[in-house]
């Protein structure tokens, strides 16, 4: 989704509606950042992972899974619109390669499968789920 509503901070931004596939990948790779001002407890944040794998930093709120996904080297989080706008200037200093490295380190299909196996094995041997692992 390239903007899911019509807000704009610059006249050069325009609403594109739903996009997917190669077009979405191209838009993310060419974006200055992914703007994710979640007002809900985002359960995972697939759009964040898509941005990071494209080398695009994230600017969002501290809601739901965002703090687990967005570290200081790949984005900025804030609690208010004013904090997010103030943090926007710092986004340009972030390394796109760091964004991709973080996504590849923690959020690939292989990593997710390894973690599922770890959790199932622990549960089968102990009857309880293991502690989660920090992503930082």
Overview of the molecule:
With 136 residues, the chain is mainly alpha-helical. It has a single domain, classed as Rossmann fold, CATH 3.40.50. The protein has six helices and three strands, in the order H-E-H-E-H-E-H-H-H. Strands 1-2-3 form a three-stranded parallel β-sheet, sandwiched between helices. The longest helix is centred in the last third of the chain and has 18 residues, at 109-126.
Summarize the structure.
The protein has 136 residues and is mainly alpha-helical. Helices cover 46% and strands 8% of the residues. The protein has helices spanning 21-30, 46-53, 66-69, 81-91, 96-106, 109-126; strands spanning 34-36, 58-61, 75-78.
**Strand line-up in the sheet with most strands:** 1-2-3
CATH topology: Rossmann fold
Task: Report how far the terminal alpha carbons are from each other.
Answer: 27 Å
User: Unreliable segments (pLDDT under 50, ≥5 consecutive)?
Assistant: none
DSSP strand count: 3
Number of domains: 1
CATH architecture descriptor name: 3-Layer(aba) Sandwich
Which H/E pattern describes the elements? HEHEHEHHH
> What is the share of helical residues?
40-55%
């Amino acid at each position: 989704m390239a903007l899911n509503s019509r807000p704009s901070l610059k006249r050069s931004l325009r609403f594109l509606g739903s996009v997917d596939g190669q077009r979405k990948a191209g838009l993310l790779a060419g974006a200055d950042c992914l703007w994710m001002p979640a007002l809900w407890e985002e359960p995972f944040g697939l759009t964040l992972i898509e941005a990071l794998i494209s080398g695009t930093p994230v600017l969002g709120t501290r809601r739901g899974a965002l703090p687990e996904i967005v570290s200081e080297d790949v984005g900025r989080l804030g609690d208010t619109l004013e904090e997010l706008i103030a943090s926007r200037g710092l986004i340009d200093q972030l390394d796109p390669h760091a964004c991709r490295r973080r996504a590849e380190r923690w959020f690939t299909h292989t990593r997710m499968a390894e973690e599922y196996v770890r959790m199932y094995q622990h549960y089968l041997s102990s009857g309880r789920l293991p502690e989660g692992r920090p992503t930082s």
